[in-house]
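ugh ok so i messed up the first submission bc i forgot one of the chains. this is the corrected input, ALL of the components this time, i swear. 534 residues overall. if the numbers dont match what u have on ur side tell me asap before i send this to the collaborators (the ones from the other lab, u know who)
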Amino acid sequence: MKIAKQHTPVLIVGAGPSGLMMAAQLLRNGVQPIIIDSKQGPTTQSKALAVQARSLEIYRQLGVVDTVIQNGKQGAGLIFNINDKEQARLPINNIGEGQTPFPYVLVYQQYKNERVLLDYLTQNCCPVYWETSLETVTETAGKATVTLVSSGEKTTLTCNWLIGADGAHSVVRKQAGIPFNGDTYPRTFYLADLNLNTSLGDYIDLYLSKDGFAAIFPMPEDKRYRLIGNLPDTLADKEDITVEDILPGMEQVTGAKQQVTECHWLTTYKLHHRMADKFRSGRSFLIGDAAHVHSPVGGQGMNTGLQDAYNLAWKLAGVVKGQFNELILDSYADERMPVAKRLLNTTDTAFNIIMKRNIFVNFFKSHMMPGLLKFLWAREGLKKEFFKILSQTGISYRDSKLNMHLGRGSKIKAGDRLPYLKIFDEKKQTETDLHQWCAQPGFTFIAMGKIAEMDLFSLAKWINQTYPQLLNFYYLPLSSKNQHVFDAFEITSPQPRTILVRPDMHIGLINDGINTDIIRNYMDNVVEVLSRES
Ligand SMILES: Cc1cc2nc3c(=O)[nH]c(=O)nc-3n(C[C@H](O)[C@H](O)[C@H](O)COP(=O)(O)OP(=O)(O)OC[C@H]3O[C@@H](n4cnc5c(N)ncnc54)[C@H](O)[C@@H]3O)c2cc1C
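and heres the new structure output, hopefully the right one now
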């Protein structure tokens, strides 16, 4: 399929998870992008397995979460083995109870994520132009001109904004001259998605031994497992590695023989930890693996790319539609670069503990780590904190310039993800939750506490007239059924409290009281709304 247009407001390069999420979020926010990919069509490779709770929350807002959950499988937990002996069993099912509608890790292969997002694009009349590669980018005032190659034919296209979702070897990043600093880990790893003749249970089995490491991940399909490990030195120079090559090493580390009935995917790969110096240069933005790559410890890679897209898309959509000042786009790198930096550090540390083989680290792994893990796992508070990190629900942008915190409370602050709190909607007399109130595109203004009916009416009218379609309005009156919400926001007096939630479900403004000047100040001077209509 050929691109008929000569200009597009947004060109997305790469239809992996990050690029597809970017397109889906732009569409949700009313902007039609063009998305291209050099591949022939959607991938069938499983790649990333873990979908974290924060990504499921985004899927819920997009209206596709039911399909995702139906075809995935909840992770049960991790068994930590040293020299093929079980040392600690760490269950993770429902460890995030009360923190999110999805208090677990969902095993759901990357290609399935891509399919769900592709379907969303199709339903919104946004095709992916496959077999179309970006070659060059030239920026002039107000636009970027790109050359694309499709079926051996070169074409040019102009765009106002270019999204580099084109993976670790990003052409967008290279064309923008952005360094991608970091390193490549020396060892080679194997990955095999296999059907076995027996069921090994629902836990991830992690094995550490003097010969290296191996792990077995249950996949959603019956008796299907992913086996990963370090390639034995004896195979380092061998080309075309087969399942028969890797099984002896695997058996040595795990102490068990596996009967393989079918191999779905086998690959060897090196791991990298690198991050782009900038996530933006002029009209080009980097998201996902184009911006950061790291070891897959903790299943964070794909999820981080999805959330880069989620963070950038609503801001860019607002700029494209002439609603926001372009300056809001700077907040993308300000908010997401610290997240990526932290992720690289934690995954690097975890990976080094697993892989390092010196005498001290070995002693720590075999004699101290199992006890330490059991000790930590017995503490509910620590498990809760661990889930916040793993699920990415704990990511906060408290230092962002898009915040105004005018409240006395200190537990929840502007910049935090909107907590998941169940509520009783007095108006509709139904159970719902705060996230559900933020299901529509745009900002959501929530007033909590005791407000006289006339004041409420005037406020709703003012919001409708001042920010039509840009600001949704909800009211949560004081009631015993919703006391826990008031407790969470540390509301002790009858004085109303207001919060303004960004389209990506992070709190932008918290105020002790209701003041339309403050709402206007936030929207006009912090977000810098130019046009008040959607
Ligand atoms: C073997 C393997 C196993 C993995 N396992 C895990 C895991 O268990 N957990 C985890 O979290 N992550 C894992 N990952 C990483 C995860 O797959 C990535 O983090 C994720 O794919 C990043 O998504 P992305 O959309 O940013 O980039 P990609 O998925 O790399 O997508 C980039 C897209 O851009 C296209 N493209 C590239 N250049 C151009 C161009 N010039 N023009 C047009 N299109 C272009 C490519 O064809 C590709 O479709 C694994 C990766 C691999 C390779």
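quick check: The mean pLDDT is 93. that seems consistent at least. The pocket of flavin-adenine dinucleotide is lined by residues 13-19, 36-39, 47-50, 110, 133-134, 165-167, 171, 191, 267, 269, 288-289, 296, 299-302, 305 (CB under 6 Å).
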